[in-house]
Amino acid sequence: MPERYQQEIEEILRQSGELTGKPKRQPSFLKLVWRHFLQSLGGKTWSISPGRVMLAAVSLLLAALLISSAAPGFVAPLAWAGLLLFIVGYAMFFIKPQKPLEKRWRGQKIELEGDSWWDRLRKKLG
To answer: How far is CA 84 from CA 25, 34, 66, 89, 118, in A?
Structure first.
């Protein structure tokens, strides 16, 4: 039994690169920010979420800031639209709370035992 655990630990270390001795190169900060930005925009389904609304609001505010000297007539509408979108995105956090993710361990769903009969009935009906 202990050999099996030892082999599993060695396999995990081998996959992470620590056992082979090859140092992993850490990506730069800008690459990490860019990956996070792309990951927040992507997804299985593109739906309107509070984070995406606030990202659009910040983008509008930055656009208003950048074009302030080139086109002063467009600054106020962009800034107001950005501010309004930011408020809407902030309010969306409270209006539609996100559902908690189900707990998983190694791809298997973990079901907590000890649910009351009321909880079990609610799960079956809804």
So the answer is: 42, 26, 19, 9, 43
pLDDT in tens, 84-109: 999 999 998 888 666 666 777 777 77
**Cα separation, 58 vs 30, whole angstroms:** 18
3-state DSSP of 39-85? HHHCCCCCCCCHHHHHHHHHHHHHHHHHCCCCCHHHHHHHHHHHHHH
pLDDT (0 to 100) of residue 81: 93
**Maximum Cα–Cα distance for the chain, whole Å?**
74
- Residue 109 pairs in a beta bridge with 104
State yes or no: pLDDT of 42 exceeds 90.
no
**Model-level pTM greater than 0.70?**
no
Distance CA(123)–CA(9), nearest Å, equals 38
